Amino acid sequence: MTELSPTGYDLPVYDYVRPPELSGSGSGHCRVAIVGAGLAGLTMACDLASRGVAAIVLDEDDTVGVRGASSRGICYAQKSLEIFDRLGFYHRIRDKGVTWSVGKVLRGQDTLYRFDLAEGSRSAQPPFINIQQFYVEWFLVDRIRELGCTELRWKNRVTGIHQDENGAVLSVETPDGRYSLEADWVIDAAGHASLVRQSLGLPTQGELGEDRWCISDVRFTKELPVERWTWVEAPFNGNRAVWQHLMADGVWRIDYQMLPNTDPQEASRPEMAAARLRDQLGPDVEFDLVWVGAYAYRTQLMDNFRHGRVFFIGDAAHVKSPFGARGGNSGIQDAENLAWKLSLVLKGQAPETLLDSYNAERRPAAVENIAVTRRSGRFLAPRTDMERLFRTAVMDLAVDHPFARLLLNTGRMCVPHHYGPSPLTTGDTGEAMPNLVLSSRPLSDMLQGEGAHFLALWCPRDAQDRLGSSLSPLTQEGWPLHIQAVSADDRKALGMAAGEVLLIRPDLHLAARLPNADAEQLRSALRRATGRT
Amino acid sequence: MMHITPNIPDPDAFYAALLDTHRGLSATESQALNARLVLLLANQIGDQAVLMSCLQTARNTGATHRRNDP
Question: What CATH number is given for A437-529 in this structure?
Answer without folding.
Answer: 3.40.30.120
